[in-house]
Amino acid sequence: MMSTPDSAQSTWTRWTTIAPIVALVPLPFTWGRSLGTIWIVIVAVLLAAAVLAAVHHAEVVAHRVGEPLGSLVLAVAVTVIEVALIVTLMVSGGSEASTLARDTVFAAVMITCNGIVGISLFVGAMRHHTVTFNAEGTGAALACVITLAAVCLVLPSFTSSVSGPEYSGSQLTFAAIASLCLYGLFVVTQTVRHRDFFLPVDRADYRPLARANSGQEGVEQAAASADDPLTQEDDGEHAMPPSGREATLALVLLLISLVAVVALAKVESKPIEKGVESLGLPHAFVGVIIALLVLLPETLAAVKAARRDRVQISLNLGLGSAMASIGLTIPAIALASIWLPTDLHLGLGPTQLVLLAITAVVGVLTVVPGRATRLQGGIHLVLLAAFIFLAANP
């Protein structure tokens, strides 16, 4: 369908189109300067608007390319933001920034595997009682996350080539190459070889009564399932995909939004560090704040999908972001470490190791059945709360 002048005009007057452009306006007045309270508030509001605009435009692009490739769009976008923030803060952060990459990546893993997964399961189960997903694809994604976390965040605490929780040059090179290879293999599996493992499953496939009863009762149960408004809810999946022109505009605005987010986050980084210090929180909490900020688009998109009973898409987003946070961020930071003025400490501490181990075990128990209730979602959210509390009170 060709766009009419009215529709084109309405596109340019939407807040999602205006926000990324407006977010760039304060940069000449704020970059590299000490900000007052008013400017800090203005930058924070524009940063939030740019993040929300990025969500919208990423969803438009994702709808155009289809699932599961669409779930990779936000994951890669989040990684770009994450790497840019980590590098800029490590350049200006001094010796305390040596653990910033570790703290941010670990926070991203905990937020995605417990926060995004937990809230998606909880919201979906609250609305649809039981949520269903493809155990094969979700299990494969979780296995990749656990392996990447072990290679990049766990093993540096136990190697002996270099004192401290860090890799030697050759070890860091191996970890970076292994991470890229594993992430690339997963992307090929998700988008080419076994694409069906990562597509939403039919809720009727998990109705035991409909499968078990082979007589008239089973037919009636199946008919009731077909008439269930929860299974018939319009989730937007069958809406017409955007035109090529609309998708191209969304892609351009997505890139502008990402530039605005990175730039404004850099401007806001010093106030964040000062705020953390004034509250008496450890410096590692800066990594938690960065992860919460950059994962906001993923979280909103995942919750929206869960409300439409498309929990598989939510899990693709959550676990895909965790993989991208490790499999793409660590290699990028490893390359940047050649020029960074500080060491790169990747090894987790004892409390973080315990939290990661519990998250892995609980994640496996959640994924194996292929369906979940609000209980599983609540368990993951409690783990997230424990992580945030212990990060603030180590």
Automatic annotation (TrEMBL):
Membrane topology, as annotated: Multi-pass membrane protein
InterPro entries: Alkaline_pH_Ca-Antiporter, NaCa_Exmemb
Subcellular location: Membrane
Main subcellular location: membrane
GO function term, MF aspect, one: potassium:proton antiporter activity
Pfam families listed in its UniProt record: Na_Ca_ex
Boundaries of every Sodium/calcium exchanger membrane region domain copy: 37-191, 250-390
Keywords: Membrane, Transmembrane, Transmembrane helix
GO cellular component: plasma membrane
Parts of the chain that traverse the membrane: 12-31, 37-57, 69-93, 105-126, 138-158, 170-188, 247-265, 285-303, 315-340, 346-368, 375-392
Spans annotated as Disordered: 212-241
Record's protein name: Ca2+:H+ antiporter
Protein's organism: Rudaeicoccus suwonensis
